[in-house]
Design goal:
With 221 residues, this protein is of the alpha/beta class. The chain folds into two domains: 1-106, Formyl transferase, N-terminal domain (Rossmann fold); 113-221, Formyl transferase, N-terminal domain (Rossmann fold). 32% of the residues lie in helices and 23% in strands. It is built from six helices and nine strands. The strands form two sheets. The protein has a seven-stranded mixed β-sheet with strand order 3-2-1-4-5-6-7, sandwiched between helices. A two-stranded antiparallel ribbon has the order 8-9. Helix 5 (126-133) packs across helix 6. The longest helix has 24 residues, at 168-191. The protein is globular and about 45 Å long. It starts with 6 loop residues before the first strand and ends in a 17-residue tail after the last strand. The structure holds glycinamide ribonucleotide. Glycinamide ribonucleotide binds next to helix 1, strand 5 and helix 6. Glycinamide ribonucleotide binds at residues 13, 15-19, 92-93, 113-115, 176, 179.
Amino acid sequence: MAENIKLKVGVLISGNGSNLQSIIDACEDPNFPAELSIVISNKAEAYGLGRAKKANIKTKVIEHQNFQHRSDFEKNITKALINANVELVCLAGFMRILTDTFVYSWKDRLINVHPSLLPIFKGLNTHQRAIECGVKFSGCTIHFVSSSMDEGPIILQAAVPVHQNDTSKSLAERVLDAEHKLYPMAIRLFANKKIWIENDLVKFTNIEDHNEILINPNIKN
Ligand code: GAR
């Protein structure tokens, strides 16, 4: 695939950036249909910034506390994304709620990873809540972002088992492993124009193999 037809992706992070790393790794495959144009963090100390720099990806720190108004913070993010010619924005552990204005301006081009099988366990502490509820499967979701938190058309989900001796840490690690597989899969589908939205639901087109859209739980892990 010629370099110049790759989808340009911008990633927003706040911390560790292990999902960012999975996207960086995926982009190293010359056949992956997307490339990273910029990584933006709202925290100067985010570990993920170093991951991006190591991969020679442009980075920018836009700290929310430097802005009196959320709209100015977001305008700066949009400016940086546009300057980097970003076509798809990926939230990867970006821990700021975005306003309707931002969400609308990136409508159908803004996706997020959430560590639960939405629509269950929106918000924080998903793994602890999953354990306390006694669910036998948890997982993660990649979804388009809408103006309500952790809502919006679901693109892909991966399920993982919840074992009876799990702690929120052990479950988080298992779910994170699944996130790392799922995010590049979703970007690939988007870049290959295999996703469309109808009545707020994601539909797939031209899927040749179910492995393109499904990850089966590995019960042994
Ligand atoms: C991931 O588990 C992601 O699903 C979660 O934060 C973690 C970031 O990890 N995101 C949310 O909870 C957003 N609602 P990472 O920085 O190592 O990618």
